[in-house]
Amino acid sequence: SGYYKYFANIIDAILKNSKLTIHYVTSDPDDAIFRKDEPRIIPYYADETRLISLMMKVEADIVVMTTPDLEKYHIKRSKVRKDVEYIYIDHACSSLNLTYRTGAFDYFDTIFSVGPDQTEEIRALEALRGTKKKKIVEYGYGLIDTMIKDYEASGKPVNEKKTILIAPSWQYDNIMDSCLDDLVEGLYGRGYKIVIRPHPQYVRRFPLKMKEIIEKYKDRFSDDFMIETDFSSNVTVYTADLLITDWSAISFEFSFTTNKPTLFINTEMKVVNKDFRKIKLKPFDITARNKIGRAIEKSEVPEIASVTAELLEHQDEYRDRIDELKHKHFYNLGHSGEVGADYI
Known about the structure:
Elements: H1 8-17, E1 22-26, E2 41-45, H2 48-56, E3 62-65, E4 85-89, E5 110-113, H3 116-129, E6 135-138, H4 142-153, E7 163-166, H5 175-178, H6 180-187, E8 193-196, H7 200-205, H8 207-217, E9 225-227, H9 235-239, E10 242-245, H10 250-258, E11 262-266, H11 284-287, E12 293-297, H12 304-313, H13 315-329, H14 336-343
Parallel strand pairs: 1-2, 3-4, 4-5, 5-6, 7-8, 7-10, 8-9, 10-11, 11-12
């Protein structure tokens, strides 16, 4: 259910500016799409097994996906129509080279690119792998547009109690597994509101670990300490005063929405593509890290209280720097949905 937000702007623009009907496939039986009152969106539930045959039988002019690795594993291109155009929309706004498997985009026809960094990466990966040249649509990132709009509409609330959002990734050595206890001990009881928001894939893949974490902290649950596992809304992201993460792209969503800094913990770097160094472009995930905030080592986590206080005190110094980088990084900031819908 948490993935609709990556399509939302495009879907809204299609519904507003055309008569097209949208068929929406989800593997979440409780997806909020089934409660959406829109006759031109037809939702389908297909579990992981049935999804395999369903996707091979697709008869459509265009299939838009946030799922990478098309044709590589269980999700295949249509076997009944060879002229379907497959469009990839990113569900992050980071490096396509670093954080996805080798060849994750080889079998797409079209890429809706977040910005110049991704466009350069796609062309470099095509040259490296000798794959066909895909259409690149200079699209942007719908989620950041929505979040900025919602943040502006909210009046940019000022919290009476500074709110710290801890939102890690789900890869090996992530904060949830490596240093959550130290973070909580360093921040709890110091006058902050603390929200722990695990990655949706962490909740999905490690339900027993998640249950243990909830059990461990349940006695502390209050208005000032919570664990959030509902990912359909981003309210806690743009209402926080500071984000603490490891290598999650939520850092960009938070900082580029609010122009507030992110505190990064240098857990083991999230490297999904072991061959990422074969192209010479340095991933945005690395270059942006000390521009939109500050990175510390895991050994420094016991000093988290002082680092947090320092970043909160110097928020103004980051604001202009983050805003400038935001306008360089995204295509069509504020109106990507219309661009994507026009192409479709």
